[in-house]
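Escalated from tier 1: magnesium ion holo job.
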Amino acid sequence: MKYNIAVIHGDGIGPEVVGEALKVLDTIAEKYHHEFVYTPVLAGGCAIDAVGECLPQATIDACKAADAVLLGAVGGWKWDTLPGDKRPERALLGLRKELELFANIRPAMLFDALADACPLKPEIVEGGLDIVVVRELTGGIYFGERGTKDTELGLAAYDVEQYAEEEVKRIAVTAFDMAMKRNKKVTSVDKANVLESSRLWRRVVTEVAKDYPEVTLEHLYIDNAAMQLVRNPKQFDVIVTGNIFGDILSDEASMITGSIGMLPSASLAKGNFGMYEPVHGSAPDIAGQDKANPMATILSTAMMLRYTFGLSEEADAIENAVKTVLAKGYRTPDIYTEGMTLVGTKEAGRLICAE
Ligand code: NAI
Ligand code: MG
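Tier 2 regenerated the structure:
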């Protein structure tokens, strides 16, 4: 089949890691007889330099016309002195809004070969880990009413946590759909013992669960979830939660995997459309030196195949190739340990394609 992918190389190491990810996609296309059509578009600092704005309308249009978006990273020292609303990173918020990306998906995968880098005790993570955090991205306290007012205790500030039924429903559906493609378990995280918004959250998630009789649903309070994630992370498969809890939990979960160079992510809209990108930034300190780890971006393309295109066999092939390359002892500098074989960005990409 033919798939259209808008490609935002971006700044810093973005073009380097995206370059390797496209080689991996080309390898998949050849082996499984698909056609991936890439439309390169500008966003971030390179767009500011070329056309004077970080997110040109042409980029938004091309992304909307595509089946999925692959993004490297944006930003860098060169643009750090620009005022906040003119900076390259604004392109990310603009893309989320324009493309209506309401679900942020961050897997925390621990590869056996990298178990050394995991801060948890070996017996807790034995056999590896594979958790996905599904975070609501466009609602909750980060988008609620905010302000200040005078009180008897001095100036007060407030931010409102608010969720509407439809907002909870769509993120719950995303999580349950994902669970159906995985191990059929969802843990919904809230603070329903205290927050009214969490009680609505819990009620709606429970209703959505009725459409997925094969999936086991469990509810946890956020404080307990944060604790369980380090105490016994293997109990989790898909975690679904609101914007602020998800922000914190996804960072906590990601630390289990060791390096930021290994972490992929997806931001999904209705109808399986998604934007896929590594969790890391543009790493200006190592840009242009063939030192960046391309695996986070390569694993992001695996997520694209799995979640937007429904190509799970192909996605497995990419993830297994990454695992094999690691198991054979190849390491980019960020995950290098003594006795391993040090490789650069391009060589890491080539090895993954070969596998
Ligand atoms: P960063 O993630 O770019 O770098 C943090 C540290 O991790 C650096 O030492 C870097 O060398 C290392 N690192 C990151 N990715 C790596 C990879 N693939 N392989 C090996 N090492 C890697 O975060 P930082 O330094 O805070 O931000 C740099 C720029 O990126 C800033 O302009 C920031 O605003 C932007 N940024 C962009 C994001 C995006 O496009 N989604 C996300 C985060 C930051
Ligand atoms: Mg965060």
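The CA atoms of residues 24 and 353 lie 5 Å apart.
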